[in-house]
Every structure is written in C-alpha cells, then in structure tokens.
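Cross-posted from the bioinformatics board.
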Amino acid sequence: MASITPTATEPHAGTVWLILVPINSGNHAPGMYLELPLDEIPRFTKRPLKFLRYLGYVILNQEGVVSGTRNEPVGDDDHLVNRAVYAFATTNRCMPFFLVPSK
Amino acid sequence: MYAILSRSEQVKPELKASCLAFSPERMVNLAALSMYDSRHSQTESQSGSQHRSSSVKEELSCRDGDDVFRMVPSLEDDLWNSQAAHIIPHARGDKIRQPRLAGFLPISVSFQWMKLIVQSRPQEVDDDLQDLENINDIRNEFLASPALNGAMSRATCSVMVVSILNSKDVLFDLMDDSY
C-alpha cells in the first residue's frame, strides 16, 4: 500500500500519491509519499479524501489539509482522480507570528 | 493512543474489535511507548536476529506486559505467544539501499522512513524521539499477538502512535467513517 522516495516521477495507473513530506529537489532531501491503489481505498472508507486527511494525521500526528495536483483545495467528499498527486500540508495551530510577543 | 488502519475483510473480526476499543488502562500503556525512557533503547545492538528477538521481547514484555491491544489479561503461557512488531515497518527502515544494476550506475533508493517521520512530527509531542534512527529501536516496537503481527507483516493492518493530548476529538472525527 505504501511507497517511498521516488524513482518514479508520477503515480502508476490505478493509484494516487499522497505526499506527506515534500521532495526537496534543491538539496535532494528525500521526501515521503504513499502510493495508494484506488481499488483498495473503498475497503477503508466511503470518503477517500477525508481518509487521506486521516492518514496524514496519524502518520504526522498533526492536523492538516489535503490539496490536489494543481495545489487546488479538495473537500472531504470529493472523488479520487486516477494518477492524481495529493499533498497533505499540516495546519499549524500556533499563534500567528505577529501575535507572539517579542522578547 | 494508537490509531489502527485495517482492511476489514482480512483482519479477524475479534482482532478488529480489540483494535478499535481503547480501554483507559491500555491507553496509558500505549502512551508509554512514545514516552519510553530512551536509555533502554540503547541496549539493542545490531546483533544476530536470534539474540535480538529474545532480548527485545524481554524488554518489550517488561514495558508492555503483553499484546498491547489485548483487552483481557492473558494467562502466563499466552504471554510468550506475543511477538515484537514494528510500528514503522522494518522494510521501510533506516538504511539507504543502493541496488546495483549490471552495467548501470547504482541508483540510490532511500528507505529512511523512520527519520523522516520523526522529523516531521511535532517535537513537543515526540520530544524524546529526536534521536530515534534505528528501525529496531524498542521505541518503534510493541508486543502484538501473532494475528496482529501477521496482519501487519502482510500490510493489511498498520499501527501509528498519536498523541492523546487535545487530539482525541480530532482523531475520532477523522475516524468516524473510515472503517
């Protein structure tokens, strides 16, 4: 169900990617993504996009939002698109920096 | 707290039930995994697998007592049926493998999930895990029943540690229709 660090450049047919740690092409730092077979996902959930958010949450232990291939926002009730690349970005609940009192 | 992902058809019903039931005392036990004293983790060495499995299991049984998802205390005989299971799978471990293809340059393939996951989780939660690099570190393992361990080996089930503080509602909200 899972895969890591691309030798591939895009998802195989019948799968989607969920990027958990973005690949940094600048310094070649490894990234991490899950390659999820579309036909497996209905075994887990009826709301696949919400399930991706759940996966991001339990793996990274933080809340976050999922965006689509072109960085567009996606909703919990949307359908998965074959070979799409979704990204999980954590939502930081800290105070905005301008509200942090200066030392 | 643990969140369990399971493929419902392939995990035994009773296993699924115990995975989804979080009893208060077990929660303490599970939380102890991520708070486990890092001194103990250093005793694990890169020794042979035979030696590893027995010493690791002793350490795990000291900490976990038994399969952490078992809801009723087991008989002493059953205890040693429990197996040491990896949270982040061994195959996804801590090494960078460089498979060589004949006639081609080696291709670097990283399997360093451990480091990436630890680095990507909030430090205030996983405070004592920043030195966690070895996939066989006891902090990446827990005692599981053979059924659960088997399901994890077949990648039909996985376990992740999630902090309890402030996040119980979030987790249950996300889980509500995930099974």
